[in-house]
Amino acid sequence: MINNHVIADKVMKEMASELNLKKVVAEKAVDDYVKDGMTVGLGTGSTSEYAVRRVGELVKNGFRLKCVATSERTADLAQRLGIELCDLNDVDHIDVTIDGADEVDPAKQLIKGLGGALLREKIVAAASLAEVIIVDSSKLVEKLGVKTPLPVEVVPYGYKKTAYALESQGCKAKLRMSGGIPFVTDAGNYIYDCKFESIESPFFLESRIDVIPGVVENGLFLNTADAVLVSHPDGTVTKIV
Ligand code: 5RP
What we know:
Elements: H1 2-33, E1 39-42, H2 46-60, E2 66-69, H3 72-80, E3 94-99, E4 103-104, E5 110-111, H4 118-126, E6 128-136, E7 150-154, H5 159-167, E8 172-175, E9 177-178, E10 181-182, E11 190-195, H6 202-210, E12 215-218, E13 220-221, E14 227-231, E15 237-240
Parallel strand pairs: 1-2, 1-3, 3-6, 6-14
Antiparallel strand pairs: 4-5, 5-13, 7-11, 7-12, 8-11, 9-10, 14-15
C-alpha cells in the first residue's frame, strides 16, 4: 500500500513537471510573438492549450486579436475564453501561428498529428507568415520517426486498401481508434499511425505518401517551422531558428 502511494506520488510529480514545461514554453511563445492587432493561428494539443489560455488572458487585458483555430477542440476552448474567432477564408493572412509538435529534428522538421488535427494545422501553417512551434525537450529527436508514428489522414472509403499502400513504404500502419470505433477527424476522415523504424528521407517519403489514392494529408511538416521554442527540465526555454 505504502509503495503504491509512493509510486502514485512520483507519477503525479512527473505529470506535474511535464505539464509545467508545456505551460512555460507556451506562455513564452505567446508573450514573445503575439502583438496587439494581430491575426493569430491557434494550435491543437495539450501544449497549445496553454498558449490559447495565454491568448485569452491577453484578450482580457485589452489586446484586439483575431484568431483562427486549427480544430473544433481548440475553437471550443477559445470561445469559452472569449477569444474572437474567424474563418480562415475571411482573413488575408495569419501573422503568427503557435502550435505543438510530436517530434522535432535538428533541422526543425516535424512530425505532427498525434492530436488528430494535422490537416487543418497544415492548412493554417501554410497561411501563416510565421509558424512558431512549442515543445518540451522530450520531443527532440535526431531522426524523425524514431519515437512516434507518422499520422496519415485518409478518407474512409477503401481505407484498408490505403493502409496496404502505406505499408509498402516500410511502416506498420495502425488505424487510430477511439472508444472501440475508428477515430474520426474534424474533416470526417480516419487516421493511420504509421510506425517506421526511423524516417531516413522525410522529403522522399512525403512525396511517396502524397500520391497514394485515399491519402488526404500526412503529418510530416517539412520546412514549415520558422522557430521552435523548447522548454527544458530546468525551466529554461531555448529557440531553434
Ligand atoms: C495535434 C498536434 C499536436 O500539436 C501534437 O500532437 C502535440 O501535442 P501535445 O502538445 O499534446 O504533445 O499535432 O494534431
